[in-house]
Amino acid sequence: MEYRHTILVIDDDEDFVSGMAALLTAEGHRVISAADCDAAWNLVTTRDPDILLVDWNLPVSDGLSFIRRLRSSPEHRGRYAIMVTARSEQRDIVRGIAGGADDYLTKPFDNAELLARIGVGLRTRNLERELAEQIRKTTVLEMAGAIAHEIGNPLAAATLLHQRMALRIDAGATPELARELHALGGELHRIQQLVRKAQSITRVQSIPYAADLKIIDIHADDATAGPKES
Prior knowledge:
Shape: rod-shaped
Strand content: 5-15%
CATH topology of the largest domain: Rossmann fold
Number of strands: 7
Number of helices: 7
Number of domains: 2
CATH superfamily of the largest domain: Response regulator
Largest sheet: 5 strands, parallel
Distance between the termini: 54 Å
């Protein structure tokens, strides 16, 4: 079965966890659970859940402390956490939201309301991911343009120097020197073309480079470009 999203239920009430698993699995979600904060943290770091349903009253450390730990972690501070608890007083709701919970739902609750709030969380997470990806792409394009600009100046100087050297070669220059100078000119021309491509990148597309490393494909636009006008 292909699941839509992964939801982590953090609660030490086995009946509640079983009920949530039945409800959410029927909606097409994968459900994982933890009865305490340490087990929950391990699942957050290894299973990458999309939504966290966090009870306040947990063994050893409470759910609010767990959420605060999430918010203090650069890697996990963006996790969407809904506090689901029997604490229904206004001061508790305020503490929960102020402590870092994205949403707050009191037990007992209507299942339809829970599903609606999870839907809001999923949409929020998707928008955050799209925004982060757009920022990344914009940053890459700006860096490519800046690097190409910085390379352009010394490249122009090197090309001019090569041209002057070529003009000064006597007709009696050794074939080896002539070949090397010609090869140097070819490499300088290739660098010029690559700089122009870097300056004209309009979309970011990554390609495998080595092991888990990826690099930007500066030729990505070539595959979709139409015939050039003469």
